[in-house]
Amino acid sequence: MDLIQQKFASVFSAYEVTTQPRPDGAVLLTLRSADGKTIKRNISYAQLHASEQLTWVISAIRRDLAQDASDLPAISQLQSQHRFALPTYHSA
Fold first, then answer.
1. What is the pLDDT of residue 72?
2. Fewer CB atoms near the end CB (10 Å): N or C, the chain?
3. Does the 3-69 domain belong in CATH 3.30.160?
4. What is the pLDDT of residue 5?
């Protein structure tokens, strides 16, 4: 297992992780869940070698996984349910 695959395996421990190198230096990441669902993402060479971009890619994949699993809260739960007037200040 190479370093890139180890990194993704540690981040996505609930999934079977495989990586395939691409000719341009990119990597094809495949995540397979216990129920057999597979998710594939192409990660460019630049994204792999810039820590900020790699962090963004990992966050995007986590978001996509949560969305697929319907773990995202409904919009109504995100909105404030309590409406009230703003405070008013008077000079003395």
1. 53
2. C
3. yes
4. 86
Please give the pLDDT value at position 82.
55
Both structure tokens of 7: 């990194």
Number of Cα atoms under 13 Å in the Cβ half of residue 27: 19
43, β-bridge pairs: 27
Instruction: Please provide the size of the chain in residues.
Output: 92
pTM: 0.68
Phi, psi of 73 (to 5 degrees): -70, 155
Rg (CA), the chain: 20
State pLDDT tens for residues 37-90: 888 999 999 999 998 988 889 888 888 888 766 655 555 544 555 566 677 888
Domain layout of the chain by residue ranges? 3-69
What tokens appear for 63 in the block?
């978001």
The candidate with the shortest Cα–Cα distance to 7, out of 63, 69, 51, is 51
CA gap 27, 6 in Å, rounded: 13
